[in-house]
Amino acid sequence: MTWETAEPVGAKPTLRDVALAAGVHLATASRALSDAPSRPVAPRTVALVRQAAARLGYVPDQVARSLRTHRTPAIGVLIPDMSNPVMPPLVRGAEQRLAQYGYTTLFADTDNDPAAETKRLTMLLSWRVAGLILATARRDQPLAAELVNSGVPVVLMSRKLDATPVPSVTVDESVGIAQALGHVLELGHRRIAYLGVPQWTSAGHERLVAFRDNIASRGLTLPPEFVVTCAGYGEQDGAAALAGLLDRPDRPTAVLTGNDMMALGCYDAIRSAGLRCPEDVSVVGYNDMPLTDRVDPPLTTVRVPYFDVGRQAATLLVEKLAEANDIDRSVRLTPRLVVRGSTAAARAS
């Protein structure tokens, strides 16, 4: 059975009117209309309440709610750089989940500038957002912990702190690196370089540590120069880092990179050195950003489920806002290696 929304006649219907029409308690009607995950309402009751609300033409008064709670039905999401290809799926995942719970999402881009981050946070807090999702946190940054200590509901997205336990959704980077390294080892490569992204992020740090740990656990020894920490994330960073290694007489036959942009930069360095990928040098990226399957050769990479990371981050924040659990928790998702044309068997030397 479907119900058409009637236009209210006279006084505007209240939540109490909806509760009376549905034959339920006022608090039950409120939970049924808000989908509160901490105190769920039976599906039949939810249907009765929503049917009653539709018949009466009831519309929740978000202004009144914000005056009572001193917060708006909005979530602030702080991101470091919207031009980064991994950001759109993170943002979509968070926004879609928050919308399911009736929250508006307010995004702010810091352009990787700590001063801008502080300004954007101040702005979002001045708008009395209900909570914050941060994709900007540095490993040693005190800002997220300060927000938590101030009573602001916060969840970190694709980020963790070294010391302070703040709820977060991240990826198990050790799994991704182990898959990538295992793949090139199975192809017979032993001279393997690693080009890491900047170490101020938890993901960049964990990937580098995982590479070193995996190399050591397999009993392999690499020249120290084969492990490079780049200053940036772009193609030029990957190209410059690999170019120096390709001049060596014992140049690497395979290179693992901290992200896909750097991997594409490796393509440039390989071509400039008069070599070919994957015949002379195999390349493995990380993230599986859009169109990496369309480059020449298609990039072998570690796929990170960024949409799911964003969705899970939003879910954790909604749980915190609903006080669904007293203990803050974090989530780690699993990446997956995607093998394409940029890796091949090592040539006999």
Provide a descriptive summary of the structure in words.
The chain is an alpha/beta fold and 349 residues long. It has three domains: 15-60, 434 Repressor (Amino-terminal Domain); 68-171 and 306-335, 3-Layer(aba) Sandwich (Rossmann fold), CATH 3.40.50; 173-305, 3-Layer(aba) Sandwich (Rossmann fold). It is 41% helix and 15% strand. The protein is built from twelve helices and twelve strands. It has helices at 15-22, 26-34, 43-56, 62-69, 87-100, 114-126, 143-149, 173-186, 202-217, 235-246, 260-272, 306-321; strands spanning 74-79, 104-109, 131-134, 154-157, 168-171, 192-196, 227-229, 254-257, 282-287, 300-303, 331-333, 336-338. The protein has a six-stranded parallel β-sheet with strand order 2-1-3-4-5-11, sandwiched between helices. A six-stranded mixed β-sheet has the order 7-6-8-9-10-12, with helices on both faces. Helix 1 crosses helix 2 (26-34) and helix 10 packs across helix 11 (260-272). The model is unreliable at 1-9 and 66-70 (pLDDT under 50).
Which secondary structure elements does this structure contain, and how are they paired or packed?
Blueprint: H1 15-22, H2 26-34, H3 43-56, H4 62-69, E1 74-79, H5 87-100, E2 104-109, H6 114-126, E3 131-134, H7 143-149, E4 154-157, E5 168-171, H8 173-186, E6 192-196, H9 202-217, E7 227-229, H10 235-246, E8 254-257, H11 260-272, E9 282-287, E10 300-303, H12 306-321, E11 331-333, E12 336-338
Parallel strand pairs: 1-2, 1-3, 3-4, 4-5, 5-11, 6-7, 6-8, 8-9, 9-10
Antiparallel strand pairs: 10-12
Helix pairs in contact: 1-2, 1-3, 5-12, 8-9, 10-11
